[in-house]
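Worked example 3 (structure in, sequence out).
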C-alpha cells in the first residue's frame, strides 16, 4: 500500500473517531477496535488488547494513548521503519485530538448562550446512555472475540480473548483487590506485571 495513502487513511480514521465519540477514552475503544481490527485489519485482536493494556498503564487518556500506539504499530508494520512508526503515532494522535480541540473552542465561546437551551438538555439526555453503551461494548470487546458472519446465531462465533485460566484468575484477583480491598491501582499494575512475568 502507498505510504501516503496509509497516512491519509490513518489520519481520517482517527479524525472521525475523535469527532463522533462522546464520553472519554473508554467510549472510544470500541470504535477504535472496529476500525483498526475489523474494518482495516491493520492489527490483530490480540495486539489491540495489548495496546489497550499498555495504554491504561501509561499516563494520559486511554483513547489518545491507544491512538498513539496504534499509529506506531500500523506504520511500523507496513514499512519496517521506526521513524515512520513515530510519524504514524503523531498522525493518529493529532487526528484524534483535533476534533475535540475545535469543538471545545466553539463550546467555550457559546456555552453561556446555549447551556439553558432545551435542545442542549435533550441532546445530553440522549448522549449519556449511548456513552454507557460504548464503554460496555469496549469491555465486552476486550473479554470476548466475536467473529460476525451473518444474522443467524449459528454462524456467529464467540471465543474468549483471554488466553487461559491464569488470565481470568489475574482479572478476578485484581477486581477483588480493587473493588473490595480498595487497593491502590499503582500497586495492582505492578503486581500484575510481576505475576505476568512469573506465570508466563
Amino acid at each position: 500500500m502507498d505510504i501516503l495513502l496509509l497516512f491519509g487513511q490513518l489520519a481520517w480514521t482517527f479524525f472521525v473517531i475523535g469527532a463522533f465519540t462522546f464520553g472519554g477514552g473508554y467510549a472510544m475503544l470500541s470504535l477504535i477496535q472496529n476500525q483498526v481490527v475489523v474494518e482495516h485489519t491493520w492489527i490483530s485482536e490480540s495486539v489491540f488488547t495489548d495496546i489497550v493494556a499498555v495504554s491504561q498503564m501509561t499516563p494520559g487518556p486511554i483513547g489518545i494513548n491507544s491512538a498513539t500506539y496504534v499509529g506506531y504499530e500500523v506504520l511500523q508494520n507496513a514499512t519496517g521503519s521506526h521513524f515512520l512508526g513515530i510519524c504514524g503515532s503523531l498522525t493518529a494522535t493529532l487526528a484524534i485530538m483535533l476534533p475535540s480541540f475545535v469543538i471545545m473552542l466553539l463550546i467555550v465561546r457559546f456555552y453561556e448562550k446555549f447551556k439553558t437551551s432545551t435542545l442542549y438538555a435533550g441532546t445530553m439526555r440522549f448522549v449519556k446512555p449511548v456513552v454507557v453503551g460504548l464503554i460496555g461494548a469496549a469491555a465486552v470487546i476486550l473479554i470476548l472475540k466475536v467473529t460476525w458472519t451473518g444474522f443467524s446465531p449459528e454462524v456467529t462465533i464467540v471465543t474468549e480473548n483471554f488466553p487461559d485460566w491464569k488470565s481470568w484468575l489475574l482479572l478476578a484477583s485484581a477486581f477483588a483487590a480493587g473493588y473490595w480491598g480498595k487497593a491502590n491501582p499503582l500497586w495492582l499494575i505492578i503486581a500484575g506485571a510481576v505475576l505476568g512475568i512469573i506465570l508466563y
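Notes: The mean pLDDT is 81. The longest helix spans residues 82-114.
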